[in-house]
């Protein structure tokens, strides 16, 4: 017929020819057919798999085909299923997509033999070339029955029955028990435990039998099906209370019955615990509207009544007394009862950014010149006492203790502020016999809360060298090429590390996202794991210039995917002490590699039964987008077939088998500089997308799961001790930070329509609230910024409630939560500090340092401290220059705990009702260690006052040293703060070579210790 370009030219010719309109339409149709040919499967029909699958609760024998079968063909004559007893009668059922034919009428634990006859026809006209035989044995299917929910709330609505699940059980016996008032808390505690033996032993004492009956299930054979026990039909269960339901298969004599507990209620509860306040919100579960007049009783662990309250018209009630003693909230109104346990884990909000440091009424920002010291050295503690918004209030005497690594008190002191506003300073000489490990300064603030500052005491040597690693090529190398790494080693004072030993280790692994300009794109085949390896290079010595070249021969020449080669190099001083650095080198196949960007985040699953649009690129190592023709895309289903099993030890649990098969094949072309689009339909389950380049033979792949991983979520929901993770509400603000009097615009996007509660809250209490209807498409609300909100633990919380729906479809009530920090603008209180000093400084001479602070307004005096510390010491712990602005104004941790009953709702259902057959109402010393004599340069000066221009001059007397100094300045006023840093280094000088030996960590302290001595003569470099 010719290629598609020929057809396109013919169609265009026909379009312009005045006598050939019918011909042009014909040719255009032929071209459209040809253009769609890559989407059609051209291969012959094949049987991909024959296995047992669980479909709609029933285990079936299914055959999976490479192509959809012809729906107009009667497929029954092409399937022959037999057992030892002969031919099995029944019909094969074709799936909607035509790729799967299943036989539903199977028996458990039976050997089957299947023959699929040749000439079975596919929808594309191809036929099965030859008979396909298969044999399999179906799984065991034991009779079992259990409750299908660990929820405890039943709504008084149609469809609100107690669900059970069973297989091959004709009937179940269920007894219903109402818990006695005096035993309510004890029974509740037993129910929260996985071990309920005491509950069964004391059932008669703690409960009253109110109803019993046998319920016929009418289950289809060999089918795991659900049924519902209609609670509303039992008058004995109408009285408010907590009920237990105990169930056994009829005629069973097992030791312990299946257990469920429930209350019948429309009262929904949501609790929020602040530092000194407990707020309870009550909503109608069915309508998601506030419930007024609900009586709330707070009970302690013994069941004693602590306090009583009643909800307002907004559905709110608060408690402020003995909050730590409250274990259970009992809510009742008219004939309804709801219980909310406060001793269970709070809602899991780990998906949100919750901050780190807790809010406190007073902040003490503590800093020192470094955080690593040796015994016998002096540490200078500095403290700035401010309120929660960084303002000076007063400066009382503070009680402080210094504790060693064994938490024993080493020194007690009364920390007094100097004449400066809220600035504290204390020098502490670390004893020469001090234990090594983590030490801590603990200070009791005026509000009674502690402030802590940790530092390390160790026998160590400062780093005296720096090590730079760089590749000979700028960015990447091809797999076949050897890799050359340039090494430069120098002492910190500038001399080259001539003759020093270099040791190197290599680690090789896939690099899936190496191109920063193409974020989210995954390159290479994720199953190409054969090159993952670790190996070492031979040691070498640096030359007279402190240089070396590492020649790394390729061991990965056949790689078709990008690789990361990680080099860890250690440069040793002549005494044996190393300085280690790491370098990552990209290995990129010559030419282009296919990149795939999914339309979902790494940690998220795309929705099931949807169409997903993937972005496809062909890129080189520099991120340039290349053209590509005829890329082959295959969507592979990695199908797990789950089978429910039951045992008395584990209850219902799931086993699975796995089969991978292609579900879609297509081709695509990529233009230079452009992204391609690939739209793929997915159902629920695991998939792998593979895209291959026939020209190069390379392939990239991406594995993902569509829909929720339901079995894992189901298992988690069965564990009563697990915190519930709520659905998430997306929140967005219109500004980065707000000033007093501003109005914040909040965008709210919930997962469902419903009623919303918006709160601005601190760790102490709610500060502002509003209710509004929410739409799934998004809603917006204005939040006025109150001038009294002068704190940094402000968060916006949104509670989105979904009402029940029972008419057209059953929708169980639910809640979703949104959380977002509300930042306050404080940039006007930042001091920008600059330091002026020489680039090179001479030892044993004074060093003049000039400080300059910008952002002053002369409304308050400003002061500054200055430290000069050997960079070789700071590098060991990656010590950062102290920053009081960040420390005092950073977001504080969200500390409000939320608990509610929405995770305990029994799902509304329309399962067939079990028929009650009979039954009715019931009858009533550190060892001495060798010490290094290496002197550490660590100077501290301060505080000094800044003049009206924000300037100060400080003179430091430098001792003898080799290396680099970091100058660190901290400036502060009553409510303004800042910091700055700069490095200066000594000129090239000789350095002694320290002979060191390393001690392994002690059993109780994972710290490497170096013992070093100086040689008789220096080793000059």
Automatic annotation (TrEMBL):
Ranges of residues in domain Alpha-2-macroglobulin bait region: 729-876
Pfam families: A2M_bMG2, A2M_BRD, bMG1, bMG3, bMG5, bMG6, MG2
Record keywords: Lipoprotein
GO molecular-function terms, A-Z: endopeptidase inhibitor activity
Keyword Lipoprotein tagged: yes
Alpha-2-macroglobulin domain sequence ranges: 938-1010
InterPro entries tied to this protein: A2M_bMG2 (IPR049120), A2M_N_BRD (IPR011625), A2MG_MG1 (IPR040639), Alpha_2_Macroglob_MG3 (IPR021868), Bact_A2M_MG5 (IPR041203), Bact_A2M_MG6 (IPR041462), Macroglobln_a2 (IPR001599), MG2 (IPR002890)
Coiled-coil annotated spans: none
SMART domains per UniProt: A2M, A2M_N_2
Family named by the database record: Belongs to the protease inhibitor I39 (alpha-2-macroglobulin) family. Bacterial alpha-2-macroglobulin subfamily.
Name the UniProt record assigns to this protein: Putative lipoprotein
Lineage, highest ranks first: Bacteria, Pseudomonadati, Pseudomonadota, Gammaproteobacteria, sulfur-oxidizing symbionts
């Amino acid at each position: 017929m010719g290629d598609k370009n020929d057809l396109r030219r013919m169609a265009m010719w026909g379009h312009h020819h005045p006598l050939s309109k019918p011909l042009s339409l014909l040719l255009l149709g032929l071209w459209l057919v040809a253009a769609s040919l890559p989407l059609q499967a051209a291969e012959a029909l094949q049987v991909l798999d024959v296995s047992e699958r669980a479909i709609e609760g029933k285990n079936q024998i299914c055959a999976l085909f490479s192509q959809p079968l012809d729906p107009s063909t009667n497929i029954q004559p092409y399937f022959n299923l037999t057992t030892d007893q002969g031919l099995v009668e029944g019909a094969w059922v074709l799936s909607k997509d035509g790729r799967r034919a299943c036989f539903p009428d199977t028996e458990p634990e039976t050997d089957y033999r299947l023959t699929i006859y040749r000439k079975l026809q596919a929808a594309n006209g191809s036929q099965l070339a030859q008979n396909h035989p298969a044999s399999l044995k179906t799984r065991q299917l034991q009779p079992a029955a259990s409750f299908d929910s660990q929820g405890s709330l039943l709504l008084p609505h149609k469809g609100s029955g107690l669900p059970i699940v069973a297989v091959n059980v004709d009937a179940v016996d269920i007894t219903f028990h109402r818990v006695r008032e005096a035993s309510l808390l004890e029974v509740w505690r037993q129910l929260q435990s996985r071990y309920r033996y005491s509950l069964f032993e004391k059932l008669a004492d703690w409960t009253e039998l109110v109803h019993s009956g046998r319920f016929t299930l009418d289950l289809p054979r060999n089918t795991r099906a659900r049924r519902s026990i209609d609670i509303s039909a039992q008058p004995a269960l109408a009285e408010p209370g907590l009920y237990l339901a105990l169930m056994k298969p009829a005629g069973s004599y097992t030791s312990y019955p299946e257990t469920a507990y429930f209350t019948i209620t429309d009262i929904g509860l949501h609790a929020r615990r602040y530092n000194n306040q407990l707020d309870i919100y009550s909503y109608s579960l069915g309508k998601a509207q506030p419930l007024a007049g609900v009586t709330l009783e707070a009970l302690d662990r013994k069941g004693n009544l602590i306090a009583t309250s009643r909800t307002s018209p907004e559905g709110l009630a608060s408690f402020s007394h003995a909050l730590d003693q409250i274990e259970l909230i009992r809510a009742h109104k008219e004939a309804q009862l709801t219980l909310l346990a406060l001793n269970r884990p709070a809602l899991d909000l780990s998906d949100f950014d919750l901050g780190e440091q807790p809010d406190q009424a007073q902040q003490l920002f503590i800093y020192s010149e470094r955080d690593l010291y040796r015994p016998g050295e002096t540490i200078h503690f500095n403290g700035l006492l401010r309120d929660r918004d960084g303002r000076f209030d007063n400066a009382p005497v503070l009680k402080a203790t210094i504790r060693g690594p064994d938490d024993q008190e080493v020194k007690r002191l009364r920390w007094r502020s100097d004449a400066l506003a809220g600035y504290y300073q204390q020098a502490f000489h670390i004893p020469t016999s001090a234990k090594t490990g983590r030490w801590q300064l603990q200070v009791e603030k005026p509000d009674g809360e502690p402030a802590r500052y940790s530092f390390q005491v160790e026998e160590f040597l400062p780093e005296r060298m720096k090590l730079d690693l760089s590749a000979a090529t700028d960015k990447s190398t091809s797999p076949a090429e050897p890799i050359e790494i340039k090494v430069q080693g120098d002492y910190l004072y500038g001399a080259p590390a001539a003759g020093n030993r270099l040791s190197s280790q290599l680690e090789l692994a896939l690099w899936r996202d190496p191109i920063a300009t193409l974020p989210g794109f995954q390159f290479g085949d994720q199953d190409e794991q054969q090159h993952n390896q670790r190996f070492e290079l031979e040691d070498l010595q640096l030359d007279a210039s402190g240089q070396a070249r590492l020649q790394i021969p390729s061991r990965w020449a056949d790689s078709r995917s990008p690789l990361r080669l990680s080099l860890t190099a250690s440069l040793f001083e002549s005494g044996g002490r190393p300085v280690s650095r790491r370098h990552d080198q990209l290995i990129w196949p010559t030419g282009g590699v296919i990149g795939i960007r999914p339309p979902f985040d790494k940690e998220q699953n795309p929705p099931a039964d949807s169409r997903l649009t993937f972005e496809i690129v062909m890129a080189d190592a520099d991120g340039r987008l290349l053209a590509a023709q005829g890329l082959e895309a295959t969507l592979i289903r990695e199908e797990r077939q789950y089978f429910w099993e039951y045992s008395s030890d584990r209850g219902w649990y799931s086993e699975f088998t796995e089969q991978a098969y292609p579900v879609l094949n297509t081709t695509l072309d990529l233009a230079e500089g452009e992204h391609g689009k690939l739209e793929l339909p997915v159902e629920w389950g695991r998939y792998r997308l593979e895209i291959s380049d026939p020209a190069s033979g390379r392939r990239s792949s991406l594995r993902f799961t569509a829909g929720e991983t339901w079995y894992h979520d189901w298992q988690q929901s069965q564990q009563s001790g697990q915190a519930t993770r709520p659905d998430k509400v997306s929140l967005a603000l219109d500004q980065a930070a707000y000033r007093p009097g501003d109005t914040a615009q909040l965008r709210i996007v919930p997962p469902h329509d419903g009623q919303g509660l918006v709160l601005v809250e601190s760790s102490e209490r709610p500060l502002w609230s509003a209710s509004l209807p929410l739409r799934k498409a998004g809603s917006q609300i204005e939040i006025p910024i109150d001038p009294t909100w002068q704190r940094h633990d402000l968060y916006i919380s949104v509670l989105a409630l979904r009402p029940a729906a029972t008419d057209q479809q059953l929708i169980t009530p639910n809640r979703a939560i949104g959380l977002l920090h509300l930042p306050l603008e404080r940039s006007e209180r930042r001091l920008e500090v600059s330091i002026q000093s020489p680039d090179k400084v001479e030892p044993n001479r004074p060093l003049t340092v000039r400080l300059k602070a910008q952002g002053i307004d002369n409304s308050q005096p400003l002061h500054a401290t200055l430290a000069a510390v050997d960079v070789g010491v700071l590098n060991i712990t990656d010590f950062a220059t102290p920053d009081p602005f960040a420390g005092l104004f950073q977001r504080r941790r969200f500390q409000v705990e939320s608990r509610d009953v929405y995770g305990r709702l029994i799902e509304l259902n329309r399962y067939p009702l079990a028929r009650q057959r009979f039954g009715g109402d019931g009858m009533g010393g550190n060892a001495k260690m060798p010490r290094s004599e290496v002197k550490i340069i660590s100077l501290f000066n301060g505080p000094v006052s800044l003049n009206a221009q924000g300037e100060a001059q400080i003179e430091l007397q430098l001792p003898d040293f080799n290396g680099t100094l970091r100058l660190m300045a901290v400036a502060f006023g009553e409510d303004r703060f800042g910091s700055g840093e700069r490095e200066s280094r000594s000129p090239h000088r000789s350095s002694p070579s320290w002979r060191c030996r390393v001690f392994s960590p002690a059993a109780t302290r994972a710290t490497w210790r170096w013992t070093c001595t100086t040689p008789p003569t220096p080793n000059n470099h």
